[in-house]
Amino acid sequence: MIAVIDYKAGNLTSVVKALRYLLGEERTAREVVVTQSPEVVRGADKVVLPGVGHFQSTQLLEDLGLTEAVRESIAKGAWFLGICVGLQWLFEGSTEAPGTKGLGAFAGMCEHFPAVYEGADLKSPHVGWNSLEGIREDSRLLRGVKDGGFVYYTHSWRAPVVAATAAITHYGGTFTAAVERDNVMGVQFHPEKSAAVGLQVFKNFVEL
Question: Mean pLDDT in the chain?
Fold first, then answer.
């Protein structure tokens, strides 16, 4: 069963639609569940955390007991995928909401794009299509995605590049486009808006 966490900030409809499409009609009703229940998250084989908007919205995860449920789920071996703000939540936190802690699965803070880059004003948010670079050969989430493949972004904060970074994107410098360590994965881009590349990412996750 795939638990898609609803914390009132995710692009739930498109994400659920993509997952159900890949699973097929016969399996969707029982295998893709939108939830705010810690118990459902603990019992899931896979957990997806979509995200659109302010990092402060992730405070609800702590308030509902979902942060600890996710930790327990990951510890028992369930696969986890964070999308956009969901990826940023995997880090220690974000300067967008300094009082709200992230999961801390990866070290570092998410920070705003610089106002100026290489002597020119930089537009923020970073919206539109951009390419994935430096894709790790051992990445299971990005299996079948070619270096230079384009994905869709909309964000003003970005995660740092760390040892677990599975792909990068260049905009106002280099940032983590995808992160992956064991059963914990995240993407800054929106797979549900990223055409064939995004569908491949979801397919890889569903087939884990």
Answer: 95
Q: For residue 129, what are the β-bridge partners?
A: 152
pLDDT digits (tens, 9 = 90+) for 30-50: 699 999 999 999 999 999 999
Domains of the chain (ranges; CATH) run: 2-206 (3.40.50.880)
Check 84, 96, 126, 180 and give the catalytic one.
84
Q: Is 190 a catalytic residue?
A: yes
Q: What is the per-residue burial (b if ≥16 Cβ within 10 Å, else e) of 159-174? A: bbbeebbbbbbebbee
84 is catalytic: yes
Candidate list 31, 39, 192, 207, residue with the active-site label? 192
**Cα(185)–Cα(193) distance, rounded to whole angstroms?**
18
One-letter amino acid of 36: Q
- Is the whole-model pTM more than 0.90? yes
What confidence tens digit (pLDDT) does each residue in 104-116 have?
A: 999 999 999 999 9
